[in-house]
Amino acid sequence: MELIVIVLLVVLIPSSLLLIVSAMQAKSGTLKMNNFLGIRTVETMRSEETWTVAHKACAPTLMAAGVIGLLLAAGMVWSAFTKPEWMYYFTGAYVVVVSGGVILAGQQAKKAVKEMDTRA
User: Fold this and answer.
1) What pTM was computed for the model?
2) CA dist., res. 70 & res. 9, Å (int)
3) Going by C-beta distance under 8 Å and a sequence separation of 6 or more, which residues neighbour residue 44?
4) What is d(CA 49, CA 11) in angstroms, rounded to the nearest whole number?
5) Model confidence over 1-50: pLDDT tens digits?
6) Among 54, 34, 32, 33, which residue's Cα sits nearest to residue 43?
């Protein structure tokens, strides 16, 4: 059980916090194009402008995925000590919420870039 808690504290909670911080930067326009963080597709990495437009569009979804992921990770830690049988539910929900949030954010970013291209 201790190993599970260590994995949660070292991997899932920081991952959720990273989503939250990157969403805040994306929303403010301070998330610069890079090779590690953000929605990195051909469309979004075409220029700094497309990167910024795309990330501003998907920031709310990334924020929601990060916040809900953080709550679910905290729920996993709680259940590890109180209701171990609930770990599976929290883990499944975490995977669905965070993965789904990132996939949805990618679709929103793509749509924002496409709309930007049609206006130009």
Assistant:
1) 0.89
2) 11
3) 38, 50, 51, 54, 55, 109, 110, 113
4) 32
5) 677 777 777 888 999 999 999 999 999 999 999 988 899 999 999 999 99
6) 54
Encoding tokens for residue 117? 């291209």
Delimit the domains of the chain by residue range: 2-119
Q: Do 91 and 48 contact (CB within 8 A), yes or no? A: no
With pLDDT > 90 as the criterion, what percentage of the chain qualifies? 69
What is the distance between the alpha carbons of residues 74 and 94, in angstroms, rounded to a whole number? 10
CB burial readout 22-50, b (16+ within 10 A) else e: bbebbbeeebebeeebbbeeebbbeeeeb
Do the Cβ atoms of 40 and 102 come closer than 8 Å? no
Tokens representing 35? 């090779």
